[in-house]
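step=encode ok
step=design start
structure_in=
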């Protein structure tokens, strides 16, 4: 009787484990489909926006020399010179040592917005040339904002 009891327990464990395994597999598949659907909807949204025109005051900023460990900020002003609202979709710095801040993700015609790239100089002695890519609803779509800073030890 004890052998039969052991096999019943093993069988129940296998059934329960299989149920949870397949449930988890189905849930992940649904998450992937939902993520793909939301990305397609988001891409469609960005493609349907009317194009704006932008003028960037300085695309390359030279910062003063600083000591290692200090944090420096490069500021960029983007002017909406077109007739449609300017939308900033994303800012993508090329290094994890560089953060960013956008004053407004939407700017109306005649207004401006500011993008600040914040660089942590810890362990970055020497001349550093850093950049970030900005995507907006303009005909150019991608803009490269850069800065150079000499980090002293």
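sequence_out=
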């Amino acid at each position: 009787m004890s052998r039969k009891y052991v096999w019943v327990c093993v069988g129940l464990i296998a059934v329960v484990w299989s149920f949870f395994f397949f449930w988890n597999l189905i849930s992940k598949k649904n998450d992937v489909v939902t993520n793909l659907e939301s990305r397609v909807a988001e891409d469609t949204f960005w493609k349907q926006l009317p194009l704006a025109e932008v003028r960037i005051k300085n695309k390359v900023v030279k910062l003063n020399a600083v000591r290692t460990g200090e944090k420096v900020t490069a500021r960029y002003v983007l002017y909406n010179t077109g007739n449609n609202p300017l939308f900033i979709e994303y800012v993508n710095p090329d290094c994890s040592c560089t953060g960013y801040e956008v004053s407004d993700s939407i700017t109306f015609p005649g207004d401006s917005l500011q993008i600040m790239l914040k660089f942590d100089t810890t362990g970055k002695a020497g001349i550093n040339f850093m950049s970030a890519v900005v995507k907006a609803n303009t005909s150019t779509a991608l803009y490269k904002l850069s800065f150079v800073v000499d980090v002293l030890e």
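step=design ok
step=annotate ok -> The helical segments are 2-48.
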